[in-house]
């Protein structure tokens, strides 16, 4: 096995993983981590309303398997909606619980060994994103004519209010279209993979998109359902990877160290 696991980074809704994690990747790369950011199929500049939740799961799962089949362990780093995708994508790819020595695997395969969640949601097996969380938040809506999920308030206020105004507006302009089907369909593919691995959760205390109190409600429910969850907190908006990249990278690094043991 490689001395350090590969980090696969999965973005939230409307965001391009190839750019949203750049600041954090810059820090982690200096620590010799291999980082692979994901661009989810459901999120594109022009949009494709035919894309579904299983397309996003498959995209992440393919990257996981490309690493684990080469003997590399993987840690999934997920943000917001990305947690719903990552949880299901790891199904069957975690270390068997009966395997006593994590440093020995006769198959030669790596595994998903941990889940680092940033202001995210806990997937419910058999439930779509909307069914699992209750409903869409009030600042978004489904456009029935286009088939996309739309933000109904200024995006800077939802995601980046702790960035300088110019920078926040710049990131808001980079948001892409997202298929509405990813939220309301695909429950049959949803899997609570977070029950199969240790979880570190970064709670964002000044979050306008997924308020801190709701995050803590989800964490409490997950713990009661048997999750092994460690919580860290950060004074940030919904996007600490932009406003607090060094602290976010430290959270990821500390989580990985805990997962490796």
Automatic annotation (TrEMBL):
Residue span, AB hydrolase-1 domain: 7-250
UniProt xrefs under InterPro entries: AB_hydrolase_1, AB_hydrolase_fold, Sec-Metab_Biosynth_Hydrolase
Superkingdom classification of source: Eukaryota
Cited Gene3D superfamilies: alpha/beta hydrolase
Pfam families: Abhydrolase_6
Protein name: AB hydrolase-1 domain-containing protein
């Amino acid at each position: 096995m490689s001395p350090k696991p590969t980090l696969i980074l999965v973005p939230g809704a409307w965001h391009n993983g190839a750019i949203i994690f750049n600041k954090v990747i810059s820090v982690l790369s200096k620590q010799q981590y291999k980082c692979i950011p994901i661009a989810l199929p459901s999120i594109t500049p022009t949009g494709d309303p035919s894309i579904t939740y299983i397309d996003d799961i498959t995209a992440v799962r393919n990257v996981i398997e490309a690493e684990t089949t080469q003997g590399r362990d993987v840690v999934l780093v997920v943000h917001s909606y990305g947690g719903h995708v990552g949880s299901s994508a790891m199904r069957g790819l975690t270390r068997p619980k009966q395997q006593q020595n994590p440093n020995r695997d006769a198959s030669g395969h790596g595994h998903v060994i941990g889940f680092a969640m940033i202001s995210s949601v806990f997937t419910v097996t058999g439930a779509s994103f909307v069914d699992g969380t209750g409903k869409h938040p009030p600042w978004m809506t489904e456009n029935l004519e286009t088939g996309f999920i739309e933000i109904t308030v200024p995006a800077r206020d939802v995601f980046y209010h702790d960035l300088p105004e110019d920078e926040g507006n710049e990131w808001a302009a980079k948001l892409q279209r997202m298929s509405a089907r990813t939220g309301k369909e695909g429950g049959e593919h949803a899997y609570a993979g977070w029950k199969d691995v240790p979880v570190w959760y970064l709670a964002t205390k000044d979050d306008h998109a997924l308020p801190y109190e709701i995050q803590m409600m989800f964490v409490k429910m997950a713990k009661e359902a048997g999750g092994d969850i460690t919580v860290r907190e950060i004074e940030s908006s919904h996007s600490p990877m932009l406003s607090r990249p060094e602290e976010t990278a430290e959270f990821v690094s500390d989580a990985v160290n805990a997962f490796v043991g």
